[in-house]
Design brief:
This protein is an all-alpha fold. The chain has four helices and no strands. The longest helix is centred in the first third of the chain and has 51 residues. About 5% of the residues have low confidence.
């Protein structure tokens, strides 16, 4: 009987230690996530103030998809609107860093029509 009581006390002590450590880990993870969220939101606020200079948010810009026919003119050159969009994307990507666009040209297709057909045939879902 004495061994049974000792075993029961040891079992309860083990459960108590395990669950208290689990609760402690949950508290640590929760606290860490709150700290990270606070740091990220303060960083975003600083970026918004820096971008807006006087605290104003930039107005939403409308983005639309462009078809291949719109990109190519009759003579095969890229229109100025598309070049302006590319320049704006480069500016948004690099921001304050100095950057310069030297040229804009169309890329060649990566695969031939036969290679594309083979790729589609071999990667078709079941």
């Amino acid at each position: 009987m004495e061994n049974m009581m000792q075993a029961l006390i040891l079992l309860l002590a083990g459960f108590l230690v395990v669950f208290s450590v689990l609760v402690l880990l949950i508290l640590i993870v929760t606290l860490y996530s709150k700290i990270i969220r606070t740091a990220q939101s303060s960083g975003e606020k600083r970026k918004a103030v820096k971008a807006g200079e006087d605290g104003k948010q930039e107005e939403n810009k409308v983005v639309r998809s462009v078809t291949r026919e719109e990109i190519e003119d009759d003579d095969g050159e890229i229109p100025g609107e598309i070049i302006a969009v590319i320049a704006a994307a480069v500016d948004a990507m690099y921001g304050e860093k100095p950057h310069k666009i030297k040229s804009v040209r169309k890329s060649r297709p990566a695969r031939s029509a036969w290679a594309k057909a083979g790729m589609l045939q071999n990667t078709r879902p079941f």
